């Protein structure tokens, strides 16, 4: 937690953790979203101005940013369970390791992060698993920006001195895809769905995925959100942008970022590399 890592800063409340209203921010710098800025000269100073259109959309770097006013839980509940106020259960074990050689019982090795349960008097339980995925980011440290913004005479948005970018490869194929591959097959056998919440920029970074027209034929329901702010309002509000239904297989294809090229194309690339290697060897021998 931020307060533990940096005691001098104290505890900084998180405005989005609707499940824990008094929760502290878990980010050392309190940064839960990024966006692309351009530099603009104003009054002799270099000011950061958000880039217009989709390239300048806010991208969430913290999963708690999606907890704003419990909106995603309402949207998922309405679309899949027909209940806008479902019950929420967290960290439910669903994979167990086999007993060890000394006959000790297996430990929990996999958990469903969130499960929404329809409030009903029926004896059967109606529920949906929920996965929330923010984007990791990589690049230079933010210390210089924090120092600049903390100065009392700075009342504008300082253009960043460092370079940073959302790391969709680490967030999608390396993190989200294995989670889906582990959890969705079991859910599919049980006749249950997986809801995945990402922001617009994250989803647009994924390769093309074929949709299915009805949720009954889907394994995964993608809930795609974006963050909007009115003119003059520095606080962005989360809105539901789109819901897409896909199978696990099509989702994996999209997350891997492409489909295999034809075999002749691949073999031609092998031949090109072999020729390049041979040419380099000949040049080295000649010199």
Number of helical regions: 7
SSE sequence, one letter per element: HEEEEHEEEEHEHEHEEHH
Strand order of the largest sheet: 5-6-7-10-11-12
Mean pLDDT, rounded to whole units?
84
Q: Shape, please?
A: globular
Q: Kindly provide the radius of gyration, computed on alpha-carbon positions and rounded to a whole number of angstroms.
A: 24 Å
| Helix proportion range | 25-40%
Low-confidence stretches: 1-7
Major beta-sheet overview = 6 strands, mixed
Pairing-aware structural class of the strands and helices?
Answer: alpha+beta
What is the number of strand segments?
A: 12
What is the strand content?
25-35%
User: How far apart are the termini?
Assistant: 59 Å
Question: Overview of this structure, please?
Answer:
The chain has a six-stranded mixed sheet with strand order 5-6-7-10-11-12. Strands 1-4 form a two-stranded antiparallel sheet. A hairpin with an 8-residue loop joins strand 11 and strand 12 (237-246). Helix 4 runs antiparallel to helix 6. The chain has 287 residues and is α+β, with helices and mostly antiparallel strands. The protein is built from seven helices and twelve strands. Helix content is 29%, strand content 26%.
């Amino acid at each position: 937690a931020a307060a533990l890592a940096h005691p001098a800063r104290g505890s900084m409340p998180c405005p989005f953790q609707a499940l824990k209203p008094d929760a502290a921010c878990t980010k050392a710098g309190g940064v839960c979203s990024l966006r692309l800025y351009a530099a603009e000269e104003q009054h002799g100073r270099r000011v950061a101005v958000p880039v217009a259109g989709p390239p300048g959309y806010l991208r969430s770097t913290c999963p708690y940013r999606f907890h704003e006013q419990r909106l995603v839980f309402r949207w998922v509940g309405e679309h899949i369970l027909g209940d806008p106020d479902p019950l929420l259960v967290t960290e439910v074990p669903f994979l167990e390791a086999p007993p060890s050689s000394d006959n000790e019982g297996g430990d929990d090795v996999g958990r469903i992060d969130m499960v929404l349960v329809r409030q009903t008097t029926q004896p059967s339980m109606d529920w949906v698993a929920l996965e929330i995925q923010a984007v990791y980011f990589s690049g230079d440290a933010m210390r210089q920006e924090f120092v600049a913004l903390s100065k009392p005479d700075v009342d504008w948005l300082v253009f960043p001195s460092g370079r940073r970018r959302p790391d969709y490869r680490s967030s999608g194929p390396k993190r989200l895809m294995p989670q889906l591959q582990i959890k969705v097959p079991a859910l599919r056998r049980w006749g249950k769905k997986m809801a995945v919440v990402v922001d617009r920029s994250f989803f647009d970074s994924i390769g093309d995925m074929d949709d299915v027209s009805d949720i009954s034929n889907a394994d995964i329901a993608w809930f795609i959100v974006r963050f909007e702010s009115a003119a003059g309002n520095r606080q962005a509000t989360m809105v539901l942008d789109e819901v897409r239904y896909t199978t696990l297989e099509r989702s994996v294809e999209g997350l891997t970022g492409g489909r295999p090229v034809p075999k002749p194309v691949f073999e031609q690339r092998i031949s090109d590399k072999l020729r390049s290697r041979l040419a380099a060897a000949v040049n080295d021998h000649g010199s």
